[in-house]
Specification:
With 163 residues, this protein is of the alpha+beta class. It has four helices and nine strands, in the order E-E-H-H-E-E-E-E-H-E-E-E-H. The strands form four sheets. The protein has a three-stranded antiparallel sheet with strand order 3-4-5. The mean pLDDT is 82.
Length: 163
């Protein structure tokens, strides 16, 4: 594999695994691609925008010199912890998960009907990952979205292990 860099041919380094073997390219997963495309479309739907607007507040922002800025600071309230976060640190999440932890994956019709839900089933949650050190001295990440997603994944894994 050669790559033209700066006018000359240079051999491109292959990514290696921990054992030193060349890394294999993952196979195309069409189900994951479709699921991701449907989620991206839903993320731009009017329902999601309305839920985000309901959790929004604007406050006065000050410049470094102490004067009042022309733009206001926009914050969103997390439905779980109640703290206020900027728009880049929040996500709109389903109260009841799209893939039900009790039944697991059923079919595409169930997935689409659970994804496209009412506004009552949507909430704004913080997705800001901040590092913390727990009592054992290990570092981890914490956000309401992260914790909720981890709980849902654990429930799905238990269901998968039972069957």
């Amino acid at each position: 594999m050669y790559n033209i860099v700066g006018g000359y041919m240079a051999k491109r380094k292959q990514k290696l695994t921990k054992s030193g073997k060349p890394r294999k390219k993952p196979k195309w997963n069409s189900n994951a691609a479709f699921r991701g495309a449907l989620r991206r479309v839903f993320a731009r739907s009017p329902k999601v925008v309305e839920v985000k607007q309901a959790a929004r507040k604007e406050e006065i922002k000050h410049n470094k010199d102490g004067s009042v800025s022309k733009k206001k600071r926009v914050l969103y309230q997390c439905a779980i912890c109640g703290k206020w976060f900027p728009g880049t640190h929040v996500a709109v999440d389903h109260v009841n998960p799209v893939i039900n932890p009790e039944t697991g994956w059923v079919d595409w019709n169930d997935f689409i009907s659970r994804l496209d839900c009412d506004k009552d089933n949507l909430q704004v949650v913080c997705s800001y990952t901040k590092k913390y050190e727990d009592e054992t001295g290990k570092y981890g990440t914490y956000s309401c979205h992260y914790k909720k997603s981890q709980d849902e994944r654990k429930a799905l894994k238990l269901l998968k292990d039972k069957s």
